[in-house]
TrEMBL record, chain A:
Organism for this UniProt entry: Amycolatopsis minnesotensis
Start and end residues of each ABC transmembrane type-2 domain: 35-272
This protein's UniProt keywords: Antibiotic resistance, Cell membrane, Membrane, Transmembrane, Transmembrane helix, Transport
Bilayer-spanning residue ranges: 37-59, 71-93, 114-142, 154-176, 188-207, 247-269
The name this protein goes by in its record: Transport permease protein
Length: 276, 277
């Protein structure tokens, strides 16, 4: 009797498995690039230390200092740096270095590349949030909330905010042809939005209304507002534009940006800089 | 069945024809060298076949599929070594090769591939610390890790020193010996002569000649030049029967500085692209 050998297995590795493998490699590359870590990782904490030491004063009847309001909002600025900036510049760098073109010539699906990027951004952003909180607690006496409800808010603001910003970073990467251009574009957008979103200037009500109206179209204001609701007592909501934390609007705006970001990515993503 | 079949391939950009109608076949297990000056359309042609670029017109079948629409299973059968790249700098050689092995259904052993390209001594080194030639050998390692049926090599030895090129040629020779089909683009005529079963010359976006390295452009039948030195000084005669001439000359005794030369591949090549510029 003859036995027939089974056909050689030719199953391609699954997208999720490849995505997680990409994530490991992306993380190793991210944390081994010292300049990159210093710029996207340490800069927000450095700014928090400087600005928090400049702005003095206590909000009457609350015991909350101007530094604490700044620090709570800047946790958001930190994760935007490690998601929006880091993703946008990272994708452009992958295109410029030929990494994307090399991947395009292998059987890896595009989705696995992005899963890898999202894993890297999620881990870096979580580490960034921890770093920002450690600085805020040790330097400015910010207190961690004890309520589970606050941490739930922290979790969803973090997830929606990071994801929306990462997607917008990818979308914006389509317009930059070099890492230098990307760094300039990303930082211009990021710094501009921080100013008009009441991150550096607190409370946000001190800003001209038209500025905040413009900022309200973008995620930065809502992410920082969400984090202020987590780390500041309820009476501080009176210093927001609407006089409340508006958590429903925060969820709505960030969710909408996630959807819009996905659509923009699908429309604008390019593997290479060359004309196809 | 042919590995690559191309008919009437055209690629046009706004106001510029990069590839102007190419017919080309590559058999399974064959090594084909695509020669041509910069801007002749070599890279455009290869990138269309690799699925990196679309085409304006014409037919292209690579391993039985249309490269413009083929999917992951098709890519798993290709090995692509692009022109210079600058990625994965902070990973080590072993990390990089292992990682890429994971993309394929039936990869080679990463350690064996590193050995094959001669990087075992650098296995633990960061990719950014490799020399240009070592980096290129890593590119080749990543190109062959998936056990490809067809390998594209785009100017693989640019910037190599002579010893590294010889080692590289041996590596490609062993791949070809295993039956891998190879499409090689190069500037170096000696490289094409050493590696290729067949040579195709492309100039101005069209194929101007095709043949084995020995017969390209009528090289085998061309007149040979016999040179020697005798009492009257250096002599040179062009003839189609050099062996007979040497036999007649050597009846008078030893000949000093005797050489017989056919036009080199380079002479033929320069003639071909000169006519078609």
């Amino acid at each position: 009797m003859t036995t027939i050998a089974p056909p050689a297995t030719t199953a391609l590795p699954g997208t999720l498995r490849l995505g997680l493998a990409r994530g490991r490699v992306e993380l190793a590359q991210f944390f081994r690039q010292k300049e990159h870590v210093a710029f996207t990782f340490a800069l927000p904490a450095f700014l928090m230390v400087l600005l928090g030491s400049i702005f003095k004063g206590v909000y009457e009847g609350t015991g909350i200092t101007a530094s604490q309001v700044l620090a709570a909002g800047m946790v958001g600025a930190g994760i935007i740096s490690t998601s929006f900036n880091s993703m946008g510049i990272g994708v452009v760098a992958d295109r410029e270095s030929g990494a994307l073109k090399r991947l395009r010539g292998t059987p890896i699906p595009a989705a696995a590349y992005f899963i890898g990027k999202v894993v890297q951004v999620a881990v870096a952003s979580l580490a960034e949030a921890v770093l920002m909180l450690v600085v805020a607690i040790t330097m400015f006496g910010l207190e961690l909330p004890s309520g589970a409800e606050n941490w739930l808010t922290f979790a969803w603001v973090f997830v929606l905010g990071t994801f929306a910003c990462a997607l917008l970073g990818i979308a914006l990467s389509a317009i930059a042809r070099s890492v230098n251009a990307a760094t300039a574009v990303m930082n211009l957008v990021f710094i501009g939005l921080q100013f008009i979103s009441g991150v550096f200037v607190t409370p946000i009500t001190a800003l001209p209304k038209v500025m905040v109206d413009i900022a309200s179209f973008f995620p930065v204001k809502w992410i920082c507002q969400g984090f202020r609701s987590v780390f500041l007592p309820a009476e501080m909501s009176g210093y927001e534009m609407a006089g409340s934390w508006e958590l429903g609007t925060v969820a709505l705006v960030l969710g909408a940006w996630c959807v819009a970001g996905l659509a923009l990515c699908a429309l604008t993503f390019r593997w290479t800089n060359r004309e196809r | 069945m042919t590995a690559v079949k191309v008919r009437g391939l055209r690629k046009e950009y706004a106001g510029h024809v990069a590839v102007g109608g190419i017919d080309l076949d590559i058999d399974h297990g064959e090594v084909l060298a695509l020669l041509g000056p910069n801007g002749a359309g070599k890279t455009t042609t290869t990138e269309i076949l690799e699925g990196h670029r679309g085409r304006t017109a014409g037919e292209a079948r690579v391993l039985g599929e249309d490269p413009g629409t083929a999917g992951r299973a098709w890519r798993a059968k290709l090995g692509i070594v692009l022109q210079s790249s600058d990625d994965v700098g902070s990973l080590t050689v072993t990390e990089t090769v292992r990682h890429f092995a994971g993309y394929y259904p039936d990869p080679r052993d990463p350690g064996e591939v590193i050995e094959l390209v001669g990087l075992t001594g650098k296995a633990g080194a960061k990719v950014r610390d490799l020399s240009g030639g070592q980096r290129r050998r890593l590119d080749v390692a990543l190109g062959i890790i998936g056990r490809p049926e067809l390998v594209f090599l785009d100017e693989p030895t640019t910037g190599f020193d002579p010893e590294a090129r010889r080692r590289f040629w041996a590596l490609i020779g062993s791949l070809a010996g295993e039956g891998t089909t190879i499409l090689l683009t190069t500037h170096y005529l000696d490289e094409a002569e050493a590696l290729a079963d067949r040579v195709a010359v492309i100039a101005g976006g069209v194929l101007v000649a095709e043949g084995t390295p020995a017969t390209l452009g009528g090289r085998a039948g061309a007149e040979a030049t016999v040179r020697w030195t005798d009492a009257r000084g250096p002599r040179a005669v062009r003839t189609t029967t050099p062996a007979r001439l040497v036999r007649e000359l050597s009846t008078d005794g030893e000949l000093t500085d005797l050489t017989i030369t056919r036009p080199s591949l380079e002479d033929v090549y320069l003639g071909l692209i000169g006519e078609n510029r």
